[in-house]
Write a structure and sequence with these properties.
The protein is α/β, with parallel strands linked by helices. The chain has 9 helices and 9 strands. Strands 4, 5, 6, 7 and 8 form a 5-stranded parallel sheet that branches. A 4-stranded parallel sheet has the order 3-2-1-9. The longest helix is centred in the C-terminal third of the chain and has 21 residues. Bound molecules: pyridoxal-5'-phosphate (PLP).
Length: 242
């Protein structure tokens, strides 16, 4: 318990410092705890500390873990690659979906939401790093993709999501976040979404301080809270390279 608490305090401190460095209000940055591979007991420890915003990558794992009573009926948000045959389960088990990255998925999600008479808050995932190993709409196509998605009334698009390049070169990482922020502005200027379209879901354990300086409104953090994962990330991402 103390280890997780210490980690959380450190992260909150870093968020505050990063905000301070660019004159932002720390209250404008949401902290999502990413719990892929994390056992229920450890997730429960962060619940006890008052956390309610969690992210998961695989529907099978959500189904297995998140029905446990110690997790208080919280629905995690979905940040992984979503297969169309998992849409129903995703809608049942998760909250916001951060990884809308292709038209086929948009159509299938809209179809299911129409059948249910529901809406869902989503983020569009953009590939800002130009790496083939990343999911997301190529950044060059993002404005056009947003215009198309805006025609689907069941999808409440409130922001953009990205994974930066995995690199020790800060400039290259920062470039990805800058790109996402520029796209948010460009899409806002198109006026196709509501005023609620203003979120930037970007920044992970290794780079959230940079993401916040570039305007992140939501950072997704796993390792820095719960420690290193045993399962390789290639289980969650295609050909993930270090
Ligand atoms: C795993 C994951 C994270 C968190 O990564 P850490 O490096 O453990 O902080 C954030 N976003 C997505 C989409 C992930 O899959």
């Amino acid at each position: 318990m103390t280890e997780i608490k210490t980690n959380l305090n450190h992260i909150k401190e870093t968020i505050a410092q990063s905000c301070l460095s660019v004159d932002r209000n720390p209250a404008d940055v949401e902290l999502m705890l990413v719990t892929k591979t994390v056992p229920v007991e450890r997730i429960a420890q962060t619940c006890e500390l008052g956390h309610r915003l969690f992210g998961e990558n695989r529907i099978q794992e959500v189904a297995k873990k998140w029905r446990e009573p110690v997790l208080h009926g919280i629905k995690p948000e979905f940040i992984g690659h979503l297969q169309t045959n998992k849409i129903k389960n995703c809608l049942d088990l998760c909250g916001r979906i951060h990884s809308m990255d292709r038209l086929g998925l948009v159509e299938a999600l809209d179809g299911e939401l129409q059948r249910r008479g529901e809406c869902r808050e989503i983020f569009l995932q953009v590939n800002t790093s130009e790496e083939d190993s990343k999911y997301g709409v190529p950044w060059q196509d993002a404005v056009q993709f947003a215009k198309v998605v805006s025609r689907y009334q069941t999808l409440k698009v409130t922001g953009l999501m990205t994974l930066a390049v995995f690199s020790k070169e800060e400039v290259r990482v920062r470039q990805c976040f800058k790109k996402l922020r520029e796209l948010l502005t460009m899409i806002r200027n198109e006026g196709v979404f509501s005023e609620n379209f203003r979120q930037l879901s970007m920044g992970m354990s290794s780079d959230y301080h940079i993401a916040i300086q570039e305007g992140a409104t939501l950072v997704r953090i796993g390792t820095a809270v719960y420690g290193e994962r045993n399962t390789s990330d290639s289980y969650y991402w295609p050909e993930h390279h270090k």
